[in-house]
Amino acid sequence: MSSLSSRMDSQVFQAFSTYATIVILKMMLMSPLTSYFRLTRKVFANLEDTKLVSSKEDKKLVCIDPDVERVRRCHLNDLENIIPFVLVGLLYSLTGPELSVALLHFRLFAGCRIFHTIAYIGALPQPSRAGSWILGMLVTFSMAYRVLSAVLLL
Questions:
Q1: According to the model, what pLDDT value does residue 12 have?
Q2: Considering the domain 2-151, what is its CATH architecture?
Q3: Which end of the chain, N or C, is less packed with Cβ atoms under 10 Å?
Q4: Distance, C-alpha 29 to centroid of its chain
Q5: At a CB cut-off of 8 Å and minimum separation 6, what does 43 contact?
Q6: How far from each other are the two terminal CA atoms of the chain, in whole angstroms?
Q7: Which sign, positive or negative, has the C-alpha torsion 6, 10, 12, 17?
Q8: How far is CA 123 from CA 80, 102, 117, 127, in A?
C-alpha cells in the first residue's frame, strides 16, 4: 500500500491531476457555452424552454441553429475524448513513468483539446480539427499501451 501512496504523491501524479483538471474544466465550460449560444440565438431544445424569452410558447423559437449544434457537437466530442484520457491517464500515472514523458503526454492532450474546441467553434478549415483530434487520441493510446505493457496479466 505504501507503494501506491508514494506513486500518488509523485510529481507525475500531480502533473496528471493538473492537466486532467484543466481538460475536465474545459469540458464543463462547454455546457454554459452551449446555453449562451442557445439563449443569444433563441434556439431551444424543448418547447417549454421558450418561456425564457417569451411569456407564451412560440413554436418558431424551437429550431436547429448551426452555431448551437456546432457547440453541442464539440461538447459531445469532449465527452468522448476527455473521459477516456482521465481514466487511462490515472492508470498511466500510477505506472511510474518519467516525469518529462508524462508531462509531454498531458500537455499534448490538453493542448489538443483546447485547440480542437477553437477549431470546432471557429469552423477552422480541416485538417486543423482532425489533426488535433488524432494527436489527442494517439496520446491516450500511448498511455494505454504503457499501462497494458506494465500490468498486463492474461
A1: 85
A2: Up-down Bundle (1.20)
A3: C
A4: 10
A5: 37, 61, 62, 63, 64, 65, 68
A6: 23
A7: positive
A8: 20, 31, 9, 11
Domain ranges for the chain: 2-151
Q: What is the pLDDT of residues 24-38, one digit of tens each?
A: 888 888 878 887 887
Q: Which helix (H) or strand (E) holds 145?
A: helix 128-151
Q: Are 146 and 94 in contact (CB under 8 A)?
A: no
CA distance 78 to 104: 20
Q: Spell out the alpha helix ranges (H) of 54-127.
A: 66-93, 99-121
Type of residue found at 82: I
For 110, other C-beta atoms within 10 Å of its C-beta total: 21
> Phi and psi at residue 97, in whole multiples of 5°?
-70, 165
Higher pLDDT among residues 96 and 56, named by residue: 96
